[in-house]
Amino acid sequence: MTDLYQAQRAMRRMRKQAMDRGVIAILDVGSSKTACLVLRFDGIRPAGGVEQIGALAGQSRFRVIGAATTRSRGVRFGEIHGMHEAERAIRTAVQAAQKMAQVRVDHVIACFSGAGPRSYGLDGQVELAESMATEADIARVLAACEMPPIGPGREVLHAQPVNFALDHRSGLVDPRGQIGHRLACDMHLLTVDAGAIQNLVHCVKRCDLELAGIASSAYASGMSALVEDEQELGAACIDMGGGATGLSIFIKKHMIYADSVRMGGEHVTADISKGLHVPIATAERIKTLHGGVVATGVDDREMIDLGGDSGDYERDTRRISRTELIGIMRPRVEEILEEVRARLDAAGFEHLPSQQIVLTGAGSQIPGLDGLASRILGQQVRLGRPMRVQGLPQSATGPGFAAAVGLCLFASHPQDEWWDFDIPAERHPARSLKRAVRWFKENW
Question: Contact 419/8 with Cβ under 8 angstroms?
Answer without folding.
Answer: yes
